[in-house]
Write the structure tokens for this entry.
Amino acid sequence: MLIGFNLPIALLFDSAQNFLGFPVVYIYFFSIWLFSILVSLLIVKRYNE
């Protein structure tokens, strides 16, 4: 997940285009953030004793 926040990877999505009125880079960062939360939740639910 840290690779997703790496600057060279993030710069791939840095463009002037919009998706649903939002810059693509914002959607990219928030989707990586949401994905990391969901993976953390999955790990905690599976290995919580």
